[in-house]
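Catalogue entry: protein
Contents: sequence, fold tokens
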Amino acid sequence: MECVKTKQIKQANVKDFFQEKWPKDTTENTIVEYGYFIKEAESIRAFFMLEPMNQNAVRLKNLYIKGDLTALHVLAIIEMSIQAAREQPATYLYIHSQQETLDELVSQLGFQVVDVPVDNKTIEGQWWGLTVDK
């Protein structure tokens, strides 16, 4: 699997992946600016965004997976997001989870529970954070 910035993907492929149904609270511009695609055997399999939260932190947002991928694939995609965060000025990566399975995966990767919602919004689920080593 390979992690590729959205800016390096043909616009037609981006539109085909989303089929004109953009993720909630995003625009095509934010997808291009902060997005990453996961390619496997020349096929686009997944998408995520690393959205800035402040000057020191990004949030893994809008993790979309096409087709059936195993938990190991999801784990690899999260590891790729950690690597992509290392290439940015941010020193902290946040993930918001509403699924027990995702909670288990991010816990295995060293994420710690964050008690206060990062964006000060009360939403269902659990916030996780990880210091990103450079």
